[in-house]
Amino acid sequence: PKRTLQTSPSRKNMYLDQLLIIRVHYSSIHLKLFYQSDNEQSMCFVN
Q1: pTM (whole model) above 0.70
Q2: Can you tell me the distance from the alpha carbon of 28 to that of 47, in angstroms, rounded to the nearest whole number?
Q3: Following DSSP, what letter does each residue of 6-47 receive, concatenated?
Q4: Chain centroid offset of residue 4 CA
Q5: pLDDT tens column, 1-47
């Protein structure tokens, strides 16, 4: 039990870090997709 108590906080931190990285990664992908679609729409309007 002592061992798990010692390792659990670091594991939780690692998990949270991974979640944060994943969230940032996906948000950047969504931004790129949003800007790409926006540019495509504006190009269509220009044409």
Answers
A1: no
A2: 28
A3: HHHHHHHHHHHHHHHHHHHHHHHHHHHHHHHHHHHHHHHHH-
A4: 29
A5: 556 555 566 778 888 888 888 888 888 877 777 777 766 665 555 54
Q: Which two tokens stand for residue 9?
A: 């906080």
- 21 to 15, 26, 27, 30, 41: CA distances (angstroms): 10, 9, 10, 14, 30
Phi, psi dihedrals of residue 19, rounded to the nearest 5°: -60, -45
**Sign of dihedral through CA atoms 17, 22, 25, 31?**
negative
Provide the residue type at 5 as one letter: L
